[in-house]
Amino acid sequence: MTRSIGPAMPEGIVHTSSSTFLQRSRQTRAVVLLPMAFACSASWGQASTTLDTVTVRSSGDSALERPLATGSRLDLSARDTPASVEVITREQLQARGDNSLVDAITRSTGITSLGHPGNSGSSLSARGFTDTTSVMRLYDGTRQYGGVGVSFPFDTWSVDRIEVLRGPASVIYGDGAIGGVINVIPKKPTRSPIRNEVQATVGTDGKRGLAFGSGGAINEHWSYRLDASGDRSDGWVDRGDSSSRTLSAALRWDPVQDFSVQLSHALGRQKPMRYFGTPLINGVQDPAVRERNYNVADSRIQYKDRWTELAAQWTPSSNVIVRSKLYHIASDRYWRNAETYLYNASTGLIDRSGNTEIAHDQTQTGNTTDATFSGSLFGRKNQVSLGFDVNRAAFQHSNNTYVGSSGSVDPYNPDPGQYTSSIPFIPRYRNKAEQYALFAEDRLEMTDRWSLVAGARFDHTNLSRQDLVAGTQAFKRSYSNAGWRLGTVYQLHPGLSLYAQASKAADPVSGLLMLSAANAAFDVSTGRQFEIGLKQSFWEGKGDWTLAMYSITKNNLLTRDPANPALRIQVGQRSSKGMESTLSMQVAKTVRLDANVALLKARYDDFSESVGGVTVSRNGNVPTDVPERVANVWVGWNLASNWTLSGGLRHVGKRYADNANTLKLGAYTTFDMALQWKATADTTLTLRGFNVLDKHYFSTAYYTTTQWLVGEGRRAEITLHHRF
Question: Where is the TonB-dependent receptor-like beta-barrel domain (predicted)?
């Protein structure tokens, strides 16, 4: 909460010889795919007389060979994509037991969390850049524009996989992705027989959860997927209770082999922990107050999200794929809390302020359409994708202007009291945005070993803000931005590839739909990245490793005017350089290893802020919430028949809570483990321990540089999972 102020075609489709049916199916396609008409180029759309070769891979094939939806719109494999891409599979999610989506995401390379209740718990850090304006999160490839992050989905039950693209991705998804993109892909209908599954979990801290899933083919033309889950916990701080519920459903229709339509709907309800951190006492964290919660007793946080999507895919020939997606997103978020806590050395009490009541009502409706063509150019194999995005979004912000105090409290025995505010809680402003984007991407095979990948995207936004108190238009503004990427992949020998890329990206100065009149005068920030890396699979696909080195420079930061500290100017710069490496391998027949490490150096090159009315340079300092070392390890061991022992380490290096780099959030390493018993072919029982060594650490700072959020301590849970 900022104070602004392609699926594969289904198997087993039965063809009909009825001309009437075929005629009707063609009419249906024409109606549903009307937005795709632009893509039907005659030169590319001719049916091929020879079918493409189909390669059937064994289970031992490397993850580098699997097609991805996130790193490109050409459905390239990780090996053929000139960028750092990674997939967290459903199998990995189950083995690690991460119920929280953010916990699952941060096991990928170089990704850390700086989530708190004010940003919907979703903010991430990647490659030296932080928050929702620099690290984008998608749901099934769809982007939600907003002000305070994405609050759905929040658990992993309905998730099929998580795809991570590190580095600038504006050429694919628009501004706001200079650090990377996280694409959460839900479970979808399949052509397999109908199967059901149920899962129940109980654990420490009052943890209890229940989940149900079902999916498969209804008949030769219809298939479905349904998932529901609920979760409750008492939390790891005083009055740290939380709860969540989610439901997702999808129905797919395959009238003919080359055409499919899918209607999906998902909704979520969350009441996260009403905990905004623990203040430093005399400049240090006192262990005696580690679990204290200084919020008011009647505090409240609630998120309500709804996602609806109608997607169609048409494959008129082996060389053409056309996809279109119509979607509607609605998010309602509400906060009522005392959010700012500061230790008063003269009284020995915690002074509470920032009595905040806020409501966000947001909607977004849009369409994304693209077409991919396979053919030849200059006698070489070539793929090209063309498409557009259009959407309209509205955001209404209600608040009480964030004033008032809930009184001071004893640090060690706080009396929470009640929420009070003399300022009325009313709608303050409404932002509206109309956006469109045009994009193109091309892959050309120069030789059998060497390929070039190039892409470009143009975005345009019309934004307006209504002052609902004064009844006037606060501002009206337009933004345009062009991003590009040029990359190459060279196969040094079978299984080993070298890649390089250069790209240009853009980040907004703040959340688009919460853009204030003051920030509206500034343009988007821009950045450039240069990256080089290696990718290799070995042992007949049973292992793979990657190595990437990169340099990113971001310009046009908002910095203080040296001549007038009260004013901001857009001339600042920050940069990051780093190295990332991953390793995944079947060490032995019964042992599997997954590991990654990221090292980076992030700095302000040209940045100043106002301190006591004086402009102070932060040049050479590390930006806040940016760790310079991140590592993850997970090992699974089939120690006996039907028994699996697994465990992993998560390491996050030191970070700074302030731009002056005087307040350091210490490095930490946590250890998780699990013991799983496969009682039957369809039933498993798993005992899990998280942070089993009970490492005390702080995840991020909130509002003030001396108000830190305590990380979760030791906990255990037992899970029963059954398929039928």
Answer: 238-692
How far is residue 201 CA from its own chain's centroid?
25
From residue 271, alpha-carbon distances to 70, 124, 335, 341 in Å are: 30, 20, 10, 22
For the chain, give every domain's residue range. Answer: 56-723
Residue type, 159: V
Count CA within 13 A, CB hemisphere, residue 356.
27
- Kind and range of the H or E run holding 96: helix 90-96
Query: What does the alpha-carbon distance between residue 557 and residue 565 come to, in Å, rounded to a whole number?
Result: 15
390 burial level (CB within 10 Å; 0-12, 13-18, 19+) = middle
SS3 category, 564: strand
Residues 435 and 438: their CA atoms lie apart, in Å, by 11
Quick one: which of 268, 307, 338, 321 has its CA closest to 121?
268
Question: Quick one: which of 709, 630, 639, 707 has its CA closest to 670?
Answer: 630
Contact 676, 697 (CB under 8 A): no
**CB-CB contact of 384 with 373 (8 Å):** yes
Cβ atoms within 10 Å, residue 604: 22
Q: What is the dihedral of CA 410, 411, 413, 419, to 10 degrees?
A: 70
What's the CA gap between 112 and 219, in Å, rounded? Answer: 44
Q: pTM of the prediction?
A: 0.89
Rounded Cα distance between 291 and 307, Å, is: 36
- Calpha distance 300→160 (Å, rounded): 32
List the structure tokens of 32: 């549903």
Question: Tokens in use for 413?
Answer: 């025995």
Q: Report the C-alpha gap between 300 and 295 in whole angstroms.
A: 10
CATH label, 56-723, candidates 3.20.20.70, 2.40.170.20, 2.60.120.620, 3.40.50.300: 2.40.170.20
The DSSP secondary structure of 347-392, one letter per residue, reads TTEEEEEEEEEEEEEEEEEEEEEEEEEEEEETTEEEEEEEEEEEEE
Q: State the DSSP string of 121-178.
A: T--EEETTEESTTTEEEEETTEEPP-SS------BSTTEEEEEEEES--HHHH-SS-S
CA angle 217, 220, 222 (to 5 degrees): 55
